[in-house]
Design brief:
Length: about 200
């Protein structure tokens, strides 16, 4: 059984996408990635799906090709609809989706963020954590609403901030937790919807 149909939105290297694909291959996640949408044609995440079996569609939707943010969002939504996506996963997608997109997929968009929300929303969350001197940071999976990194929190994982941590070292440790937390939380969503 293929399970829930996912659409994954990416902008970068795609390590969370790889974690999702690994969890599916291992049988820990009963889902199928139908399409990966990137706003950047050079995103390494698109390379991760080139040899995937079963085949995964990779689609580039560049913001600059659309006159407005809403038109950009509509183009992404069209791709997701075309592939029958049931759950949208933001896995390192570095664009803010507008209210119309969020309403269209209400309750069906999840995001992974590298902080313990509601602390440190937005860009450079790890840098924010270090600047504020926190002793614990981490990552959060949440449903997306119309606020930046808002919406109901589904799961969190704590990561200690170590003496001498840099933004890079803290980011890498948080990312390791993201790779566990995101697929696990998606599976929990699937199980909750099947009950």
């Amino acid at each position: 059984m293929a399970g829930m149909i996912l659409g994954v939105l990416v902008s970068g290297r795609g390590s969370n996408l790889a974690a999702i694909l690994d969890a599916i291959a291992e049988g820990a996640l009963s889902a199928k990635v139908a399409v990966v949408v990137s706003d950047r044609p050079d995103a390494l995440a698109l390379r991760r799906i080139e040899d995937a079996a079963p085949k995964i569609s990779g689609v580039v939707v560049e913001r600059g090709a659309y006159p407005t943010g809403e038109a950009f969002d509509d183009a992404i939504a069209g791709v997701l609809d075309e592939h029958g996506v049931e759950l949208v996963v933001l896995a390192g997608f570095m664009r803010v989706l507008g209210p119309a997109f969020v309403r269209r997929f209400q309750g069906r968009v999840v995001n992974i963020h590298p902080s313990l929300l509601p602390s440190f929303p937005g860009l450079h969350a790890q840098r924010q954590a270090l600047l504020h001197g926190v002793k614990v940071s981490g990552c959060t999976v949440h449903l997306v609403d119309e606020t930046l990194d808002g919406g109901p929190i589904l799961a969190q994982a704590a990561v200690p901030v170590l003496p001498g941590d840099t933004e890079e070292s803290l980011s890498e440790r948080i990312l390791m937790e993201e790779h566990v937390l995101l697929p696990k939380t998606i599976q929990e969503i699937i199980e909750a919807r099947n009950t």
